[in-house]
Amino acid sequence: MKDCLPQNLRELLITPSILIEYTFCPRFIYFMFSLDIPQREGNRFKVVKGRNIHREKAAANKEYLRKKLGIIEKQSEVYLASDRYHLRGIVDEVLTFSDGTMASLDYKYSQYKEINYRTHKIQAICYTLLIEDNYKRKSRKAFIVYTRSKNKLIEFDFTDKDRAEIKSMIENVLHIIKSGFFPKKTASQKRCSDCTFNKICV
């Protein structure tokens, strides 16, 4: 990814959650960074519950996945950062396989409805980029456990197109942050009605 950021922003690292907010509506980035208005999502039940699930799983049985996925090593609650991709995040689990490849595993406090949620895939690809840049190993897939569906395990596979899309999204987010650009809002009225910024968005 070409780095055209000024010196004072080259070390700016964004999280997968920020990219997900961008896909919900690009103006989230403007309000959160240009105007410095917090979203205050910490009071939402699912967010709080999800964070508690992460803590519980990190302390729970660390061997249960070894046989099911054929992994040879697992690291829990791993903080990763990448200047190359301007990303940072805490991965619930970083898995290593016998062929030397690696993958992320994330726990979601939600039900699996036989669809691959785009937001979950965005997060998974971000973790894949972080793993590859930090460990210098291939990461071709990622896993998500849906805790409200009896811990159902879902596997994601990625293409070069998927990776390119995320890199482009990162560039767009950084452009809004560095320039104060006021982007177009989402075309979804339903999203607008559920937005924490709807009272100040023109």
UniProtKB/TrEMBL annotation:
Keyword Nuclease attached: yes
UniProt GO BP: defense response to virus
Enzyme Commission code(s) on record: 3.1.12.1
Free-text cofactor note: Mg(2+) or Mn(2+) required for ssDNA cleavage activity.
Keyword annotations from UniProtKB, A to Z: Antiviral defense, Exonuclease, Hydrolase, Iron, Iron-sulfur, Manganese, Metal-binding, Nuclease
Cofactor: iron-sulfur cluster; [4Fe-4S] cluster; Mg(2+); Mn(2+)
Domain DUF83 residue range list: 21-202
Pfam families noted in UniProt: Cas_Cas4
GO molecular function, one term: metal ion binding
Function: CRISPR (clustered regularly interspaced short palindromic repeat) is an adaptive immune system that provides protection against mobile genetic elements (viruses, transposable elements and conjugative plasmids). CRISPR clusters contain sequences complementary to antecedent mobile elements and target invading nucleic acids. CRISPR clusters are transcribed and processed into CRISPR RNA (crRNA).
Cross-referenced NCBIfam families: cas4
Protein family membership: Belongs to the CRISPR-associated exonuclease Cas4 family.
Protein name: CRISPR-associated exonuclease Cas4
Annotated organism of origin: Desulforapulum autotrophicum (strain ATCC 43914 / DSM 3382 / VKM B-1955 / HRM2) (Desulfobacterium autotrophicum)
Lineage: Bacteria, Pseudomonadati, Thermodesulfobacteriota, Desulfobacteria, Desulfobacterales
